[in-house]
């Protein structure tokens, strides 16, 4: 997953290093990511220190991790706590027939990650299953 898809992360970090050398990496990342996510990334993968302390190869390695972040969901709480949520990937950015992203070839979004909301009572499950089926036929 590219955590900074709408920016040139290399140029951005080099610019921040030049303009804000005393700023810590987690602070700079929080400019473009949710603060708690930036902090957690630094706990898991990056040594958060002032930007002036990073050498070019270290910044390149950080950018590579940000561009190719991988993770594995640890599980779910199941149907017992499943609820409707708001927000998600805009349907204008997806093919309605295949659920494929119009911006990134080979990327599909289904279920509640898409900005579609149905009434309680199984409608959202039906949407998840139907959108998954549509994407699965072509992915």
Written account of the structure:
There is one protein chain. The chain is an all-alpha fold. It contains 5 helices and no strands. The chain has helices at 9-19, 25-29, 35-44, 56-67, 123-138.
List the SSEs and their pairings.
Elements: H1 9-19, H2 25-29, H3 35-44, H4 56-67, H5 123-138
Helix pairs in contact: 1-4
The percentage of residues in β strands lies in: under 5%
Helix content: 25-40%
Query: How would you sum up the global shape?
Result: elongated
Q: What is the average per-residue confidence, as pLDDT, rounded to a whole number?
A: 90
SS-based class: mainly alpha
Distance between the termini: 17 Å
Q: Could you give the count of β-strands?
A: 0
Helix tally equals 5
What is Rg?
19 Å
Largest sheet: none
In sequence order, what are the helices and strands, one letter per element? HHHHH
**Which residues form runs of ≥5 with pLDDT under 50?**
none
List keywords for this structure.
single chain; 139 residues; mainly alpha; 0% strand; elongated
């Amino acid at each position: 997953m590219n955590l900074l898809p709408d920016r040139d992360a290399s140029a951005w970090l080099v610019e921040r290093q030049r303009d804000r050398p005393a700023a810590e990496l987690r602070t700079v990342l929080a400019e473009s990511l949710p603060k708690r996510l930036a902090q957690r990334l630094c706990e898991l993968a990056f040594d958060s220190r002032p930007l002036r302390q990073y050498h070019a190869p270290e910044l390149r390695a950080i950018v590579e991790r940000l561009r190719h972040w991988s993770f594995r969901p640890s599980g779910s709480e199941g149907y017992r706590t499943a609820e409707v949520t708001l927000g998600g990937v805009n349907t204008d950015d997806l093919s309605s027939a295949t659920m494929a992203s119009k911006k990134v070839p080979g990327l599909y979004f289904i279920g509640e990650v898409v900005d579609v909301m149905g009434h309680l009572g199984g409608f959202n499950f039906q949407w998840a299953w139907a959108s998954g089926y549509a994407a699965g036929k072509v992915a």
